[in-house]
């Protein structure tokens, strides 16, 4: 077991490198330690079950939104965390997925799953096209290109009536097996699990190491024989895949794909914040923060009952607070809030529990190439 | 002589819009020159400018000129605050961190604007609503003079005049004053600047305050052209145009920002003109312009480095 | 925080899903109101074939196997994966409507003492409406009616939601009202895209849907839908007559939002203009949510053809954008007569904004409306102002409450029609094929069509009247 933990620790780029000079290099939890960890997981599961059954309504719809947002943030995380390129136009990635799915459903009379597949394919294609530009244009300038790309999608592509239905939008209903809010949450959860799995394997494999080398220094990487262009485009494709799928889920959750849902303010900015605050390459932090974000938006009016200001304006307060949190995170804890969840993750894997807030993954903050 | 309205009207609007973009773009270039940072909060400096003017007129009942000053002051204050609270603590971080932090400022500003103002569109009273009169003699009518068959309202004229005035001011500032020269010097060589005794903090404050001033001025002038604005319009409407203007003109060139602004304004307005063809054609045009410049001539027209 | 927790969450969710799963086939509505199987995309029901005897999608007419594809029976029965075994009777299975969403008497939203009505309208996003106007007006008439005993012994309660002038938000809100508030029926206050989207959603869950008349395509096949006033297309032919014979113009134009839902209004107007000898010299569309600059530029382009300027222009777009368009036009010294269909351009909030931005429009804006001008309400129903003064003594009254009062009065008469035995099916049957008259809205006649509007009122902008800029011009016109 220790070997598994050890290998996992080495492969996973988000955990600390093994301490070379630590005499107790192989920490092995006792059976009691494993029992404790299992009990923790069970307790967590019980809390979730309790929450879900005790709360009526338990806001399954909002949680779905959170899960979808998390998938979107993971998409952005691939770009920023693994290739070092910033995307400020993610509403394009997500919206194109949504409209492709809806188009395939409404015009080609295919079902939900075909729509989902279409959204993935189109997401990959449009991301790779953008990636081609990223090969020539770097860093901050590429961020500008993505900003322009996002607005072009928002203002032009999504308004093409024959593709998107213009103001009316295009219907895209949920599949019959996952029709209610609760079952739809399950579907979203399944997709999130798949995305996390792919992401985890991505990082753990040779491709992941290549990407890490790429991010830190493309010149050095290419001198080592890493195919810089190929891996960059590959990363863009993966990002587009996650985003396209998130778009399809987003549309089906609302039962319609409508242009006014995929805007800079509503999607691109929050995703950027989520990725930053959750922490780059810290999937756990990102997922947790995404859920907290939507739950905060839902529950803030309830908690702030006595403060009428909060009650009426929760929908504005939460994004504003998240922006403040993002700035504070960037200043004081650039690795993001994932540094709080990461130690728990490491503990569960069988390491000693250490609250090491410096992250230790080797790269700090938003470290895209200037 | 009346040129076809189809040609003249977009030209006039394009130049005027472009002038406002140019103002904001100058702010972007100044910041880039001095600290190699992209300021994504610049859009909200503009919105705050418009907002401040609106509050001045609606809530405080001020006349336009005073309300405009209030608006510009709001933009400047935002610039200074940004510098103090966000830029300075992140001074030694990678540049992209600052970019994301400034984008986070937009994330804060926009919901606050929505909260205070609501989701609606705000009316923005133009300047000189009844024309301009000197000693009872009306020299500019309410609708403005007709240039090539197109009416150029007093508001539009005001934008042009402001831009020219600012341009002259900046040339004088950077070329003739000690502070201006110091700012230019530190943008080239910060260490040398420090060695010579230039206080970097003050330069930083000045640069960001100026960016806030220019952004706010751009917002104050631009909003009344369309007689209204919405929360976040600075970021969704002005920011990308201003950035494209700066890139086209050259991110390190202030005259380039002028030129770039006019070009972007013209391209956008002409692209938009035949409205039945493509909705959002101006956004397409912007994207194409930006990518073309970055791929073909990354230094921009007048810039000196990529 | 990796796989173990994620798996735990997914497992927990699945346990719950198992508890929450509802039987029944889920139908979805594709374009043009066709019924589509969401898993395979196959079109199950098409125009007119989806209805059973009761004309209602909740499978009344003998609940055919593959879920509601009764009547024309074009479905290859039971094709949907999830539904084949469960199809019978539980046809649409939408939401959590209590009586299983099917069967002969769906009484969701109706109790012995109460009827629940769900209303959605664009409080935000379309025009600068004050929120309080909707809060005060949403149940003004029904409160009044309740004080007089209600409808057949039941009181009416209104659930109101802001759809934000956004169709997917509208569907979200309609879904919430159906699933959580268990409304009996849904009503749309305004906004074409939102009405079309919600009505299509309502069709899939068997909920009756009524709204002011908007487009025809996409709605003419929905068996649970009725329009409370004339559609845009029908109004368009009246508009052409009005422009020719009342405004005495020959050159006209149209400026509309680019949504597919306006297509039939557009072609209808073009045909009507040609039939009346009007020349259409300007015909453009801009984005439905165009920003101020685009709208302003569009307005400026109206008179761009110096030799062929339109004398009257028909705007079919959200009021807040129309206000910009007028400003843009007048900045270029272009001041056509603005004339169009109801309903939102003719509201006083909009009129006040127009008068503020472009005062020369006074006397040069005429719009059709389903209700008479606000300055003459007492001629049509004096109970309105009395009721408002009584229910909201400290609020400022405006024409939004009048619009809602007028609509609800018609709804009230329709809800009363089936008598005490009120179910969704009996409601649809009682409305279908019958006519209703309230003295405020023009009479509606559903014999042979679900678009029942028969006539229009006309209002005219008078900036001098700051209390009610839109004044009554003409009433109950079926032609000009």
Topology:
The complex is a heterotrimer of chains A (370), B (306) and C (480).
Chain A: H1 2-11, H2 31-54, H3 60-83, H4 90-106, H5 112-136, H6 139-155, H7 161-164, E1 170-171, H8 181-204, H9 206-216, H10 218-223, H11 228-254, E2 256-257, H12 264-278, H13 283-303, H14 308-332, H15 338-349
Antiparallel strand pairs in A: 1-2
Chain B: H1 5-35, H2 42-58, H3 64-87, H4 95-117, E1 122-123, E2 132-134, E3 137-140, E4 146-147, E5 150-151, H5 154-176, H6 178-188, H7 190-195, H8 200-222, E6 228-229, H9 233-249, H10 254-273, H11 281-296
Helix pairs in contact in B: 1-5, 1-6, 1-8, 1-9, 1-10, 2-3, 2-4, 2-8, 2-9, 3-8, 5-6, 9-10, 9-11, 10-11
Chain C: H1 3-20, E1 28-29, E2 35-36, E3 43-45, E4 114-121, H2 131-137, H3 140-147, E5 155-162, H4 167-179, E6 185-188, H5 192-204, E7 209-211, E8 225-227, H6 232-245, E9 251-257, H7 263-275, E10 279-286, H8 292-300, E11 312-316, H9 319-331, E12 337-340, H10 348-357, E13 365-369, H11 377-380, H12 383-391, H13 399-416, H14 424-431, E14 435-436, E15 444-445, E16 456-461, E17 470-477
Parallel strand pairs in C: 4-5, 4-6, 6-7, 7-8, 9-10, 9-11, 11-12, 12-13
Antiparallel strand pairs in C: 1-2, 2-3, 13-16, 14-15, 16-17
Helix pairs in contact in C: 2-13, 3-12, 3-13, 4-5, 6-7, 8-9, 9-10
At a glance:
The complex is a heterotrimer of chains A (370), B (306) and C (480). Chain B is built from eleven helices and six strands. Chain B is mainly alpha-helical and 306 residues long.
Describe what this molecule looks like in 3D.
The complex is a heterotrimer of chains A (370), B (306) and C (480). With 370 residues, chain A is mainly α. Chain A has helices at residues 2-11, 31-54, 60-83, 90-106, 112-136, 139-155, 161-164, 181-204, 206-216, 218-223, 228-254, 264-278, 283-303, 308-332, 338-349; strands spanning 170-171, 256-257. Chain A has one domain (64-348): ABC transporter involved in vitamin B12 uptake, BtuC (Orthogonal Bundle). Helices cover 69% and strands 5% of the residues of chain B. In chain B, the strands form 3 sheets. A two-stranded antiparallel ribbon of chain B has the order 1-6. In chain B, strands 2-3 form a two-stranded antiparallel sheet. Chain B has a two-stranded antiparallel sheet with strand order 4-5. The longest helix of chain C is centred in the N-terminal third of the chain and has 18 residues, at 3-20. Chain C is globular, with a radius of gyration of 23 Å. The N and C termini of chain C lie far apart (72 Å). Chain C is built from 14 helices and 17 strands. Chain C has a domain at 233-374 and 458-477: 3-Layer(aba) Sandwich (Rossmann fold), CATH 3.40.50.2300. In chain C, β2 (35-36) and β3 form a beta hairpin. Chains in contact: A-B, A-C, B-C. Chains A and C meet through α2, α4, α5, β1 and α8 of A and α1, β1, α4 and α5 of C.
């Amino acid at each position: 077991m220790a070997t598994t933990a050890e290998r996992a620790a080495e492969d996973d780029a988000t955990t600390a490198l093994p301490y070379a000079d630590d005499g107790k290099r192989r920490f092995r939890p006792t059976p009691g330690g494993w029992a404790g960890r299992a009990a923790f997981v069970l307790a967590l599961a019980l809390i979730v079950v309790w929450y879900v059954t005790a709360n009526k309504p338990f806001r399954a719809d909002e949680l779905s939104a959170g899960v979808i947002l998390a998938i979107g943030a993971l998409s952005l995380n691939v770009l920023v965390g693994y290739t070092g390129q910033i995307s400020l136009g993610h509403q394009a990635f997500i919206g194109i997925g949504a409209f492709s799915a809806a188009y395939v459903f409404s015009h080609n009379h295919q079902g939900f799953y075909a729509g989902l597949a279409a959204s993935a394919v189109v997401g990959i294609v449009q991301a790779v096209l953008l990636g081609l530009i990223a090969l020539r244009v770097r860093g901050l300038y590429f961020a500008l290109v993505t900003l322009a790309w996002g607005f072009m999608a928002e203002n032009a592509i999504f308004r093409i009536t024959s593709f998107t239905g213009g103001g009316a939008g295009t219907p895209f209903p949920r599949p019959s097996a996952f029709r209610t809010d609760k079952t739809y949450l399950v579907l979203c959860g399944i997709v999130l699990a798949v995305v996390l799995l792919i992401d985890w394997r991505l990082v753990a494999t040779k491709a992941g190491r290549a990407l890490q080398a790429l991010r830190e220094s493309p010149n050095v990487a290419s001198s080592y024989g890493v195919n810089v262009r190929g891996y960059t485009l590959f990363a863009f494709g993966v990002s587009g895949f996650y985003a396209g799928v998130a778009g399809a889920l987003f549309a089906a959750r609302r039962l319609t794909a409508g242009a006014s849902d995929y805007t800079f303010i509503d999607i691109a900015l929050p995703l950027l914040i989520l990725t930053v605050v959750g922490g780059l390459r810290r999937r756990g932090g990102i997922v947790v923060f995404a859920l907290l974000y939507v739950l905060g938006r839902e529950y803030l009016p309830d908690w702030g009952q006595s403060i009428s200001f909060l009650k009426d304006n929760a929908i504005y307060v939460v994004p504003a607070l998240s922006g403040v949190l993002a700035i504070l995170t960037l200043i004081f804890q650039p690795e993001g809030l994932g540094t709080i969840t990461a130690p728990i993750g490491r503990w569960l894997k069988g390491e000693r529990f250490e609250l090491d807030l410096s992250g230790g993954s080797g790269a700090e903050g938003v470290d895209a190439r200037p | 002589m009346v040129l076809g309205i189809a040609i003249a009207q977009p030209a006039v609007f394009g130049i005027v819009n472009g002038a406002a973009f140019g103002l904001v773009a100058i702010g972007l270039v100044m910041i880039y020159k001095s600290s190699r940072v992209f300021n994504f909060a610049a859009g909200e400096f503009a919105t705050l400018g418009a907002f401040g003017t609106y509050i001045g007129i609606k809530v405080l009942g001020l006349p336009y000129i005073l309300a405009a000053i209030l608006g510009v002051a709001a933009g400047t204050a935002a610039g200074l605050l940004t510098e103090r609270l966000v830029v300075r603590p992140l001074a030694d971080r990678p540049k992209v961190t600052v970019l994301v932090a400034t984008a986070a400022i937009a994330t804060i500003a926009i919901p606050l604007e929505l909260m205070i103002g609501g989701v609606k569109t705000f009316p923005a009273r133009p300047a000189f609503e009844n024309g301009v009169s000197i000693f009872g003699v009306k020299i500019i009518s309410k609708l403005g003079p007709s240039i090539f068959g197109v009416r150029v309202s007093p508001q539009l004229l005001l934008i042009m005049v402001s831009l020219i005035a600012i341009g002259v001011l900046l040339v004088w500032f950077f070329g003739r004053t000690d502070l201006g020269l110091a700012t230019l010097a530190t943008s080239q060589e910060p260490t040398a600047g420090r060695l010579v005794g230039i206080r970097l903090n003050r330069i930083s404050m000045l640069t960001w305050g100026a960016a806030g001033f220019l952004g706010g001025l751009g917002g104050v002038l631009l909003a009344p052209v369309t007689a209204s604005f919405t929360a976040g319009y600075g970021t969704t409407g002005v920011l990308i145009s201003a950035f494209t203007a700066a890139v086209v003109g050259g991110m390190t060139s202030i005259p380039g920002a002028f030129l770039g602004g006019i070009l972007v304004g013209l391209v956008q307005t002409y692209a938009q003109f035949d409205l039945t063809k493509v909705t959002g054609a101006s956004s397409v045009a912007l994207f194409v312009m930006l990518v073309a410049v970055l791929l073909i001539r990354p230094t921009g027209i007048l810039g000196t480095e990529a | 925080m990796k796989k173990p927790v994620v798996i735990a969450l997914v497992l927990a969710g699945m346990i719950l899903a198992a508890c929450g799963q509802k039987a029944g086939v889920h139908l979805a509505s594709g374009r043009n109101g066709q019924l589509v199987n969401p898993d395979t995309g196959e079109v199950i029901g098409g125009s007119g074939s989806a209805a059973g005897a009761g004309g209602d999608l909740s499978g009344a007419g003998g609940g055919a196997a593959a879920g509601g594809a009764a009547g024309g029976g074009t479905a290859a029965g039971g094709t949907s994966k999830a539904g084949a075994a469960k199809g019978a009777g539980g046809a649409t299975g939408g939401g959590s409507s209590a009586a299983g969403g099917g069967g002969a008497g769906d009484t969701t939203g109706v109790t012995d003492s109460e009827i629940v009505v769900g209303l959605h309208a664009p409080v935000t996003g379309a025009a600068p409406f004050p929120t309080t106007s909707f809060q005060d007006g949403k149940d003004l008439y029904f409160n009044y009616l309740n004080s007089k005993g209600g409808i057949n012994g039941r009181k009416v309660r209104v659930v109101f939601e802001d759809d934000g002038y956004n169709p997917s938000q509208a569907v979200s809100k309609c879904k919430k009202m159906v699933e959580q508030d268990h409304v009996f029926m849904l009503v749309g206050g305004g906004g074409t895209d939102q009405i079309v989207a919600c009505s299509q959603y309502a069709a899939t869950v068997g909920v009756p849907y009524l709204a002011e008349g908007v487009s025809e395509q996409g709605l003419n096949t929905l068996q649970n839908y009725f329009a409370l006033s004339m559609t845009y297309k029908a109004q368009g032919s009246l508009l052409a007559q009005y422009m020719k014979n009342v405004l005495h113009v020959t050159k006209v134009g149209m400026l509309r939002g680019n949504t597919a839902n306006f297509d039939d209004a557009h072609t209808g107007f073009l045909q009507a203009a040609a039939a009346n000898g009007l020349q259409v010299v300007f015909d453009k569309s801009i984005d439905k949510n165009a920003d101020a600059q685009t709208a302003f530029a569009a307005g400026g382009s109206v008179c761009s053809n110096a030799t062929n300027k339109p004398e009257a222009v028909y705007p079919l777009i959200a009021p807040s954008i129309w206000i910009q368009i007028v400003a843009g036009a007048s900045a270029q010294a272009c001041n056509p007569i603005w004339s169009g269909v109801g309903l939102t351009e003719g509201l006083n909030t909009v009129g006040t904004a127009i008068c503020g931005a472009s005062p020369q429009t006074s006397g040069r804006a005429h719009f059709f409306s389903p209700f008479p001008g606000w300055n003459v309400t007492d001629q049509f129903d004096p109970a309105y102002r009395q009721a408002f003064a009584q229910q909201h003594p400290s609020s400022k009254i405006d024409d939004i409450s009048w619009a809602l009062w007028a609509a609800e009065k018609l709804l009230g008469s329709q809800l009363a029609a089936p008598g005490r035995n009120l179910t969704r099916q009996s409601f649809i049957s009682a409305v279908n094929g019958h006519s209703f008259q309230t003295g405020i809205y023009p009479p509606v006649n559903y014999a042979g069509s679900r678009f029942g509007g028969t006539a229009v009122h006309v209002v005219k902008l008078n900036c001098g009247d700051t209390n009610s800029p839109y004044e009554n011009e003409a009433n109950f016109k079926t032609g000009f």
